[in-house]
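ARCHIVE CARD
Drawer: 12
Card no.: 0347
Subject: one protein chain, sequence and derived structure
Cross-reference: see card 0346
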Amino acid sequence: MHLIEYCPVIEEVDSRSKSDVAEAIGPDGCGSAGSFVEGRLYALFMLYIVYALNFLDRQILSILIEPIKLEFQFSDTQLGFLTGLAFAMFYATLGVPIARAADRHSRRNIIAICLAIWSAMTVFCGLANNFLQMTLARFGVAVGEAGCVAPAQSMLADYFPERLRGRGMAVFASAIYLGILVGLAFGGWVSDNFGWRAAFFMAGAPGILLAIIFIATVREPARGEAEFAPDTVTRASFSADLGALLKRPTFVWIAVGLGAQSMAGYGLMTWLPSFYRRFHDVSIAQAGFSLSLIIGFGGLLGALIGGWLSDALAKKNNRWYLWISAIAAFVCIPFFLGALFVSQTDLSFIFLTVAMFIGAVHSGPLYAAMLGVLEPQRRAVGTAVMLFANNLIGIGLGSLFVGVMSDFFASIGQSDPLRYSMIASLIFLLVASLSMFMGSAFQSRDWISANK
């Protein structure tokens, strides 16, 4: 069969001939001259590994909370600050200027440099001897990780055409769960056998080598390549970019919804190891292993199914990207409640598995919806602005909210303060679901406006 008859990328070509497009994409539909290393599948694979390390280094602190608390006598509020606001302040604020640079310069190079920075700072977390040093090290991790998601999603949007983008984004987003899986299982085992400091050392070191491989082998795609649009670089000021983004109601509602979803998600995931340690008397290693399987595989499967399902349904109505996300945020709530309330550990794990599977369904569809209402030249900065609100609220306040509420419930004599503080955080899933439904009302109009 001839390439033009089956290649999944070539659909409509205006200014470029089909032969030109076929030559650029290659016989396997993966990249220039058919080279796997230059193609979108290799880029997706490498970005997947980078994002998995991003989450591993970010979240490994959650499985190490109890031994760190024991050694330094930190309060839950201090630990909530370290896992949340200490990271989010720099991660959120630096994400926007780094993304602006990514809309003008090589996204591949920016990702590689930032990967090396956050990996080195993860190693420094293992050298901390007090609260200030740990805080500064977490600042450094955040500085590096601020340069991952927005440039990566911008690259993927140029590698994957609209009809495949939900699946591409879902695969990328599912790296979150691989990072959590490895971080919890690996971190818990290393902590129990070699100490919490060794866990930081062994989590951070591989990223430095990966940064070298990434910059040497990943191709930087042309902006607008998937749409066969001209490779132009936006020269608008940040205020002009921000004004254009805020005129897209879909974008605004997605930012609100994702922020609320993350506030609940990060609050729960950060404190789940401590919850099972305190209320189910599970060891750190056992908690890490069990939660790595539940969150890792449950979330991974949910994310992939969500991406496939949304692409299939969106062929008839692209609002399904947000409808699926809204439904998932709402339906997972009773399962989280079951996991937090039941006294049997095995039954709690079963409820949590279902909750994580359903909750992860939103990952690909939500980002596909967001990228679909942005012009190719604004995707990196748009993603960063959205993540600014998401991360400052979600990462910054999610785990801190649970920590503060736990200390508050303890101060008034509540016997299970951490449990009830985690339950309180579920209200944000309701806010997320409502916001995504609100955004879907404007999605078709904004999609047309961005792609005309």
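Annotation on reverse: Residues 192 and 285 are 6 Å apart (CA to CA). The chain has 21 helices and no strands.
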